[in-house]
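Re: that chain you flagged

S.,

Sorry for the slow reply, it's been a week of failed gels. I finally had a moment to sit down with the sequence you sent. For the record, here it is as I used it:
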Amino acid sequence: MDLTQGTAEEKNSRAKKMMLWFGIISLVMSFAGWTSAFVVSSSRPDWLKDFQLPNAFIMSTVVIIISSITFLLAKRALKARRSKATMLWLILTFALGLVFVYNQFLGFQQIIDLGYNFTGPTSNVTMSYIYLIAIVHILHVVVGLICLLVVIYNHFKQKYTSNNMLGFELAATFWHFIDILWVYLFLFLYFVR
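Prediction finished late last night. Pasting the structure tokens below so you have them in one place:
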């Protein structure tokens, strides 16, 4: 397929999708670097081998998986021209995103309650990696929540149709990516010691 062919709108759509995928690839590379550093550092003598992730991280994983499902249902409702259902699923996705962030902070509090801080005399390299990876991911979830607010606003203003949903699709792609990324990070942190 020749990427230079098509209308200006089709070219614009392809360009925006490609830019999003470049961003996603760079994020994958960043998190791959951090998880690789985690593996390399795990051979240190001060590495915690028997640490269990907080239960709040498990709950946040369930919540973020459900949020991906609700975003898929929103897209399906939009394609079926069911505006109210689309709005309901979008708002539910946004609420689940907030619950995810809340659970992440509960997880941090559980780590602190165990006596491990990000920095200082009660910090340790294992926990510092976990804090870093989770906090950087939370920042990307916040970006996803902002994208969701834009999608909710645009849907309210009836800017999307079943034939014109580029912004909706871009936000959905990013949201599903950060969801999949968290599932990977959770499983990585859970199983790699």
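What I noticed first: Residues 8-41 form the longest helix (34 residues).

Talk soon,
D.
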